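Entry 14. Structure prediction run on the chain below.
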Amino acid sequence: MLSTEWLNAFAPVGFFREEHAWGPVGAGVFFLKPPFLWLVTANHVVEAAGQDALSVLVTRSSGDAVTVVEVGRTLADHDLAWVRDDGNDLAAAPMAVSPDLQIKAVSRESCLPFQDLVPSMPCFTLGCPYGLRGVDPQRATPLVLDGVISGIDHTGRRIFTSVPAFPGNSGGPLIAVRSPFDPGGCLTVGRRTVLFAGVMLQSALISPGAPAFQTPPLHLGVAVPADAVFELLDSPPAQAVVDRIGGKRA
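Output returned:
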């Protein structure tokens, strides 16, 4: 089971369409990289929404209403740009902090290093499949899907999961559940078990490979690991944004 804090680390990402109706095109995750709170999503989600138009839907602290935070417009107003990693399809932007917003940020300590991921680990994805921002219009609550870590591409640094990345899930978190026991079977007290593992990017369709097999293709979700997120937030372009705003190096 995921705690409320994990659910509040997610936000639907979208833009205002015709007649001022807001709709999601993907998902995002909040990260704490001092001195700022950052919104991280897939770069192709930013391109789909428009870098200046992209905004996030956040539940208010009162818990009975949602509000739209126009991240792209804030960047444009302050002559700032998205920090991008084209190779890993990631984009990040600093977020305004307000006690009126129900946000829980992911910290470095809450992340699972890529080298510690193991196939068969239970996992969850949080997102907006097919543009659904959740089932409660008064809250920015994601739709949660579960599965397992199916495989790991160490060369390409990609994580494969049995949970497909539906359209609208891109940019959302992949959360893995680690056993509290060590390889020797001993319980490790105080060890974190629910950890951020990566950002969902796309689906992979694996064909049966021969016409004789009358079976549908295998659908797997593909994620970039958490390590890549902090590499982006530690990068010179990210630090340039921090310096431009007037922050100090953490």
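The helical segments are 4-7, 43-49, 71-77, 226-233, 236-245.
Filed with the rest of this week's runs.
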